[in-house]
Amino acid sequence: MILSKMHRYTKNFYNLIYEKATLNIADSFYSVAITVALVQLYQIDAGAISLFTLLGMLPSVLSFSYGHLIDRIRDKKRALFWIQLLHIISVVMLIVVFR
Questions:
Q1: In the structure, how many helices (H) and strands (E) does the chain have?
Q2: Which comes out higher in pLDDT, residue 57 or 79?
Q3: Comparing C-alpha atoms, which of 36, 51, 49, 52 is closest to residue 98?
Q4: pTM higher than 0.90 for the full model?
């Protein structure tokens, strides 16, 4: 029954799910790597790591407050592209800084 329902979805839907899953896995590795780097390089204690993690999760926690602004964007595909590009650039910049 579940498999018969799965055939209704388009290839774009499967691509979206695959890309979001890949992005979530990459973000998890990134979070672990940043935490390990902070502990090894700067000998940061658990309280500071907790604060850093909380600040990293804050956009997800507050997403209900800016969701209506995202709905007003007309070209969401282009906006998503630019936001993810900025995300990649910021990660690369952090890698360069921590080297």
A1: 5, 0
A2: 79
A3: 36
A4: no
